[in-house]
Amino acid sequence: MKLRLLSLFVAGACAGVLASVGFQAYAEKSTAEGLPLQEIRQFTSVFNAVKDYYVDEVSDKELLEFAVEGMVSGLDPHSNFLDPKGFEDMNEATHGAFGGLGIEVTKDSAGVRVISPIDDTPAARAGIRAGDIITKIDGEATADLPLDDAVKLMRGEPKTKIRLEVARKGEMKPLQFTLERAMIKTQSVRMKELADGIGYIRISQFQERTAEDLADNLNKLEKSGHLKGLVLDLRNDPGGLLQAAIGVCAAFLPANSDIVSTKGRTPQSDYVFKAVESDYRSGNAVKALSALTPKAKTVPIVVLINSSSASASEIVAGALQDHKRATILGDRSFGKGSVQTILPMTFGDKTVAVKLTTARYYTPSGRSIQARGIEPDLYVDDTPKGNYPTFQVREADLAHHLANQQKNAKEEDSLPYDDNDAVKSPDWTYTFGDDKDWQLTQALNQLKGAKVELSKYRGQPVSVVKKLREEERQKEKAKEALEKKSDAAQTTEAGKKAEEKSAH
Question: Cα separations (Å) of 416 from 370, 453, 455?
Answer without folding.
Answer: 16, 17, 11
